[in-house]
Amino acid sequence: MLKVKSEKFETTIRIVLAFVFSFVLFGVVIAICGHNPIDAFYQLFRGGFGSKFNFGSLIEDFIMILTIASAYSLTRRIGYFNLGLEGSFYLGAMFSAAPAFLLPDLPKIVIIPLSLACGFIVAALYGSICGILKAYYNVNEACTTILMNYVAIFFCDFMINNVWVSPGSPIPQTPYVQENAMFAKLPLSPSRASTAIFIAILVYIFVYFLSFRTTFGFKIRNVATNARYSDTVGIKSKRVVLATVMLSCGLGGIAGGLEVLGIYGTFIQNFSQNSAFQGIIACLLVNNNLALVPLSSFFISFTRAGGSGMEYYTGISSALIYTVTPLMILFVSMEKMFDYKRFFGFVRKIFVRNKENNLKA
């Protein structure tokens, strides 16, 4: 138990050091480009928190990123790299919108759960394809999930161009859903932030509770450690892998539903430009430490919202702030470089050496 706590503490310290080094490097690059780093950091903060609209834009991204990150953490915990969450996101969004515009007369208390359930089921069935290939045939999931993303996206394109067509719309999209199918807006106008954030938080709590407080979570951890041993003690490892993948993809579908019913009110062609991968990055950023996933999700949302504000006020390209997150992931993965004991030991040696030199002088 003490060893586990020590490992978690070391991971947290390594993430903090990676955060500091990334922003220091970011500031150096800004200075080299001829800008004031302090002003850039101020405008970055202002872009995320400077007004109701800015903070609302941050919350819009946070809803999607937190839900996707929670979904990805499940399969990452079992050693399955679920890169197919973008496809789940698309299918969940489209099939969450479908009941909302096909059954417009249902009350809000019925249509919203029904829509999200449809998105969850379709996305889970989609995920089962790659799950079966991995669990029963040991097919590499990185290949199958990436390829299935294209299948899901092109299928959605076909549906909104040929089946669920919005008449008179200049772009391919489904018909708009009725107001009673939309989540209520938060008092952060003119942003589109909605009460869907509470569903995202519930998804995170569910994943956390499932991972650490249930028998199924115990099975996930055992299968991830040693699948063959799990089979010998009666845990059906293949079924656990399949169920975990389906659940993860289903939650990715819920993320798509929250996007449609919370922001757009319709499913639009190519509405997501690899947005689901931001959730995956949020998980990688904290080395799949589920307790830190909300913080990493909020941080990425902040860089997306604040980067736009920084670009507007200072002229510094927002693409520059987007390099901070990959740098952090790179630094977090460099465990030896960010061994906090060695780091602080090195700093201590420098201070001791300087003190000795001063005494000699």
TrEMBL record:
Protein species of origin: Diplocloster modestus
Where is the protein localized? Answer: Cell membrane
List, alphabetically, the CDD domains matched.
Answer: TM_PBP1_transp_TpRbsC_like (cd06580)
Which PANTHER family does the entry link to? ABC TRANSPORTER, PERMEASE PROTEIN (PTHR47089), GUANOSINE ABC TRANSPORTER PERMEASE PROTEIN NUPP (PTHR47089:SF1)
| InterPro entries, alphabetized | ABC_transp_permease
Q: One Pfam family, please name it.
A: BPD_transp_2
**Protein known as:** ABC transporter permease
Major localization class? membrane
Query: Does Transmembrane appear among the keywords?
Result: yes
Spans through the membrane: 12-33, 53-75, 87-103, 109-133, 145-165, 193-212, 240-264, 276-300, 312-334
Keyword annotations from UniProtKB, A to Z: Cell membrane, Membrane, Transmembrane, Transmembrane helix
Membrane topology of this protein: Multi-pass membrane protein
Source superkingdom:
Bacteria
